[in-house]
Amino acid sequence: MPALLELEDVARSYPMGRGEVHALRGISLRAGRGDYLALMGPSGSGKSTLLHLLGCLDRPTRGSYRIDGTDVATLDDEALSRLRNRKIGFVFQGFFLIPELNVAENVELPLVYQGVARAEREARAARALASVGLDPRREHRPRELSGGECQRAAIARALVGEPDLLLADEPTGNLDSRTGEEIMDVLDGLHAKGVTVVLVTHDAGKARRARRVIRIQDGVIAEEHAGAGRGASASPHAEPEAR
């Protein structure tokens, strides 16, 4: 697959008192278009820092990160913001929907900030909502939705800009197990349509849905093995099924 994400010896440290905290110590990773990655690791392992770097919300202290061939280190803040808005969609554990707006208006909001004309905003929002099975609820307010429907709306909002990359940070963390599985089905379906997905999760069962499962430990990649996602191959290092 053509490379969409390329990280070479990426490190990220933060000053703390008289010393530094080394969140990432040297990550090298390549992901192609249409890939599906799950990042796992204990709290403090560096997985959230890595996701922020992938989302261009932060910059490496050392090493290089290229997205679609562009080295983010060469971009000023304005250019980085444009790349982020054009290439990347974010889904978080919290839904962050505006309660005064209906579902369609929430989904359209990123396009409003981009100055997209109303007719095109509405058409793109309708496509995004249809892709997550939420078009019948487009006129409802967030308070009228279930938790799963709110997360579907948040996914549609992430997709409305037609990004190359969807980053999902514990997207089922606020949901019950059945609803969480439904949201994972949505992500699986988006990947099947060609969307590149990077998922952060603590749940090994959900991680196995990805093509590649990457474990982060102490700021480095400790292990990678194949998941059960579309296109994944069997791996001798795959973990046994959780009971």
Write up what this structure looks like.
- The two termini are about 35 Å apart.
- α3 packs parallel to α5 and α4 packs across α5 (about 145-160).
- The chain has about 240 residues and is an alpha/beta fold.
- It is built from seven helices and ten strands.
- The protein has a single domain, classed as 3-Layer(aba) Sandwich (Rossmann fold).
- The strands form two sheets. The protein has a six-stranded mixed beta sheet with strand order 6-7-8-3-9-10, with helices on both faces.
Outline of the structure:
With about 240 residues, the chain is an alpha/beta fold. About 30% of the residues lie in helices and about 30% in strands.
Brief descriptors of the model:
four-stranded antiparallel β-sheet, Rossmann fold, 243 residues, 10 strands, alpha/beta, globular, six-stranded mixed β-sheet, 7 helices
Oligomer: single chain
What is the level-2 CATH architecture name?
Answer: 3-Layer(aba) Sandwich
Main sheet properties:
6 strands, mixed
Query: What would CATH call the class?
Result: Alpha Beta
- Shape verdict: globular
Radius of gyration: 18 Å
* Helical amount: 25-40%
Number of domains: 1
